[in-house]
Amino acid sequence: MIKLIRFGCLGAALLVSFTSHAANYAGDIEITGAWTRATAPGQEAAGMDLTITSKRTATLVGVSSPAALTVELHSMTSEGGMMKMRSVESIELPAGKRVNLRDGGFHLMLNGLKAPLKAGEAVPLTLNIKLGQQDVVKIKIQAEIKPLTTPH
Question: Which residue, among 121, 110, 100, 141, has the nearest Cα to 48 in the 3D structure?
């Protein structure tokens, strides 16, 4: 029984250590304006808008959400008068510059929605951000769900 208590205390200490370590890095990153539109019945994907500002050079390397099977990083470009959307592996976050992730440029796509997104609720997201040569830190946010008719 004593061994279990010691292991439990060690596990709690490691969790607190990891959490405070991640919080130190999260202080270098500001995420604002995270939102998406409510979805229509049967809609399986939704775009997500947000802005990231990092005090240090960083890279967004992934996003996850319990609301969707996958969350992809995408870019939109115009080629020969046609808009093309492509999945990208990462999005650079230059030091001190605001990076807007919204339709018409880089953005996030929630694919395989597990339930309809309803206005007035929120979508939990975990952003995986690599700071310089450091390990990837995970930052949890909530994105507002706005009415389906909300313009950009």
Answer: 110
The overall longest dimension of the chain from CA atoms, in Å, is: 70
48 neighbors 94 (Cβ within 8 angstroms): no
Give the pTM.
Answer: 0.78
Query: Which pLDDT value is given to residue 104?
Result: 63
Q: Please name each of the domains of the chain with its CATH number.
A: 2-146 (2.60.40.1890)
Phi-psi region of 13 (alpha: psi -120 to 50; beta: other; left: phi over 0): alpha
Q: What angle do CA 47, 48, 52 make, to 5 degrees?
A: 145
Q: CA-to-CA distance for 47 and 31, rounded, in angstroms?
A: 16
Q: Mean pLDDT, consecutive 10-residue segments, the chain of 152 residues?
A: 40 34 61 94 93 94 97 88 88 94 85 96 95 86 92 72
The amino acid at 44: E
Residue 91, SS3 per DSSP? strand
Phi, psi of 72 (to 5 degrees): -110, 145
Give the β-pairing of 29-37 and 91-93. Answer: unpaired
Q: CA 104, 87, 53: angle at the middle one, nearest 5?
A: 60
